[in-house]
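--- STAGE predict ---
source: upstream dedup step, 1 unique chain passed
mode: sequence only
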Amino acid sequence: MTDEIEFAATFARAIVDGDSNAAHEMLSADLGLALAATDLLSQFETLAEDMGGVTGVGTPMVILQEWPDMSPSDRAMVYVPLEGDVFSEAVTVTVSASDDVLCISGIEWGRP
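--- STAGE serialize ---
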């Protein structure tokens, strides 16, 4: 699971750093078509504004490796804490693999 955790952390760091293009390149083909890089950044900025700004990315953790509606390509759901001055939030991503290449196939902003 180390690869999936590091991949999720890299995605979170890219979006926190404002590099929505790099983060967008990590999305699955379907999610990339459904969500433009500018929309991805906008979703993050809304969350960041609500939490008073993001100061860093915490230690990610796998929260699920199996769930009822997972697809055959899904590997794990990874919870990535987003640290802030006022309070912390998180982004939970579904890490999948297409031809053994990791991608983000689902994003949930905020703590579950």
